[in-house]
Design a protein that fits this description.
- A hairpin with a 7-residue loop joins β1 and β2.
- The radius of gyration is 18 Å and the shape is globular.
- The chain is α/β, with parallel strands linked by helices.
- Strands 1-2-4-3-5-6-7-8 form an eight-stranded mixed sheet, with helices on both faces.
- It has eleven helices and eight strands.
- The longest helix is centred in the first third of the chain and has 21 residues.
Length: about 300
């Protein structure tokens, strides 16, 4: 990061430490609010509240590139929220929509989904919903300018868990080109009380955690966490990288992003700090999902 503004952002985030919670989330949203509002005015949602299933939460919004030509890659974003909250597009959770806009600004169809949440819907509802959304995109995104053969799924926090769970449930049939996991929990640390709202009795967690699925997958995978993530999320990312290195003999593409926290890791995409954006776009180009000219 360079420049006075970004230095101020970095100092502000550092002062928040590695805490998570509504106050920290609101502070991060305020930090990027003006920049993201300008982008939102220029790139409104192209198709809103498209249904991918029977539940009221089964909805997707789409953001399309300004310049379209042929069918372009698709990035499906799965928001976080501790398994119990989060929205694809709302004043309380604005940066989820920003990720869809970020994708559209880089020549992709950005898809941002809602999913069923705990405690009303426990494991494996989130993973099932991610898989159902991918199936819907495979069947319908061509009508919105997307290439169903180049779908990338990206999740943050609980959303990363749901993406990993979809890989667990549909290891052989989840038809995506790549996955990006930001600050997820995969099974290298014990669950806490809030996790149990989704997973149920902690004694059942070993059979439900997606650790083996994300370790074993040969799908192109990119992992990231933040300098000011809570240590549990850092341990999870580092442990998954180590397990995958042991299993596959190569290091999985990854980033540990300095100057960011659990929320800003996704919230800052589309702003002047392009380090994570550049890494993700480079990963997609390396796997022939996007062209180098869009990086």
């Amino acid at each position: 990061m360079t420049g006075t503004g970004m230095s101020m952002d970095r100092a502000t985030i550092a002062a928040m430490g590695n805490a998570i919670g509504p106050d920290v989330l609101a502070a991060v949203q305020a930090l990027y609010g003006d920049d993201q509002a300008r982008i939102a005015r220029d790139l409104p949602v192209a198709a809103a509240d498209l249904s991918y299933g029977d539940d009221p939460r089964h909805q997707i919004d789409l953001y399309r590139p300004v310049e379209e030509g042929g069918h372009v890659p698709v990035l499906l974003f799965v928001h976080g929220g501790g398994f119990v909250r989060g929205e694809k597009r709302s004043a309380d959770h604005p940066f989820n929509a920003h990720v869809g806009r970020w994708a559209a600004r880089h020549g992709m169809v950005g898809a941002v989904m809602n999913y069923r949440r705990a405690p009303e819907h426990g494991w494996p509802a989130g993973g099932e919903d991610v898989a159902a959304a991918i199936d819907w995109l495979r069947d319908h995104v061509a009508g919105h300018g997307g290439d169903p053969a180049r779908i990338v799924v990206m999740g943050t926090s609980a959303g990363a868990v749901h993406v990993a769970t979809a890989l667990m449930l549909r290891a052989a049939t989840l038809d995506v080109a790549a996955a990006v996991l930001l600050s997820g929990l995969y099974g290298h640390t014990p669950i806490d009380a809030r996790d149990a709202l989704y997973y149920g009795d902690p004694t059942g967690y070993p059979a439900r955690m997606p650790r083996e699925a994300v370790t074993a997958t040969t799908l192109p995978l990119f992992l990231a966490c933040a300098q000011y993530d809570p240590p549990r999320f850092q341990r999870e990312t580092i442990a998954l990288l180590a397990e995958r290195l042991e299993r596959h003999g190569t290091l999985t593409p990854a980033a540990i992003l300095s100057g960011h926290n659990h929320y800003s890791l996704a919230a800052h995409l589309g702003t002047a700090d392009t380090r994570l954006s550049d890494d993700i776009l480079g990963f997609l180009a390396d796997n022939d999902i996007i062209g180098r000219e869009t990086c």
